[in-house]
Amino acid sequence: MKLHPLKFNPIFKERIWGGNKLQTMLQKNSKGDAIGESWEISDVDGEPSIVSKGELQGKTLQELSETFQAELLGKKVYEAFGTKFPLLIKYIDAKSDLSIQVHPNDALAQKRHNSFGKTEMWYVMQADEGAKLMVGFNQEVSKEDYQTHLKNNTLTEILNFENVQKGDVYFLPTGRIHAIGGGIVLAEIQQTSDITYRIYDWNRVDAEGNSRELHTALALDAIDYTLHKNYKTEYTAEANKTSTIVNCPYFTTNLLPFQGEIAVNHDDKDSFVIYMCVKGNVSIHTENYSETIAFGETLLLPASIKNATVKATEASELLEVYIK
């Protein structure tokens, strides 16, 4: 077996807030009218990504990590995480508002759940007119203030809501309260963790009339109550060049808007590289392998493959994700 650029079968998740844009807009072959998430690359326990084509078709991401180790992951990534793939990559379609939620940091997640924490980022791919995200607070808030508003069902009065459009980026360190609003499709990059504390769910009930579980007590010590002046990530994009939009200890994400042909070199990286196509249609060519990634598709380039050529006949955009 020899490593090559890897595409995986998406893992579809039905959600109470999900819609059908993953099928209609991203051309996902999913069934159901409430598909909220497409897990593109996952090593979450019990939810392994499976290679969709090529010589390694049918292999799980965990099997590849165990077999190829640093050749797939990068030497430093392998030394830090072992064979546990450290990132979870998703596309999300929010037809209606997600719950207000927060994720614990590494220390708290390890203590409570034997898990990584969940630092993440969003890249907005499409937003209906008037669509909003909720991120952080809109005023100084103490833990006591927060509890009072929660008790009085006035939590939304202290939350920060922002109108969004395509290309907006939000970085969400652990502890930052947040929610995706209805009418938004986005790419989500995060640590490999499925730990979420649900704080408020808009008094919503399911088909049987049941409310979803809230994690009020667990969330109290996980929330960062700090007020920030600006929650949106500002960045500058330049055609046919790679621009960094998020750089944190858990992942670096670059944006590459281009048309035509560009040679990419990863000699400076000791990491796998993930490409997410967030606009257009792209082909990626390595020495012995070629692959296409259409709008809403994802590809994993093993750490041992340092050179590639990306081509697009139309204006396209790639998110390039790796660990420094």
What can you see in these coordinates?
With 324 residues, this protein is mainly beta. It folds into two domains: 11-220, Jelly Rolls (Sandwich), CATH 2.60.120.10; 243-322, Jelly Rolls, CATH 2.60.120. The chain has seven helices and 20 strands. Strands 14, 15, 16, 17, 18, 19 and 20 form a seven-stranded antiparallel β-sheet that branches. Strands 1-2-5-12-7-10 form a six-stranded antiparallel β-sheet, with no helix packed on it. Strand 17 (281-286) and strand 18 form a beta hairpin. The two termini are 27 Å apart. The model has no long low-confidence stretch (mean pLDDT 96).
What structural keywords apply?
globular; 20 strands; Jelly Rolls; six-stranded antiparallel sheet; 2 domains; seven-stranded antiparallel sheet; 324 residues
Shape: globular
The CATH H-level superfamily of the largest domain is Jelly Rolls
Distance between the termini: 27 Å
Q: How many distinct beta strands?
A: 20
The main sheet comes to: 7 strands, antiparallel
**Helical region count?**
7
Radius of gyration: 20 Å
Quote the CATH topology of the largest domain: Jelly Rolls
| Domain tally | 2
Structural class: mainly beta
> Which bin fits the share of residues in helices?
10-25%
Using the coordinates above, name the CATH class of the largest domain. Mainly Beta
**Secondary-structure element order, N to C:** EHEEEHHHEEHEEHEEEEEHEEEEEEE
Mean pLDDT: 96
What is the CATH architecture term of the largest domain? Sandwich
Low-confidence stretches: none
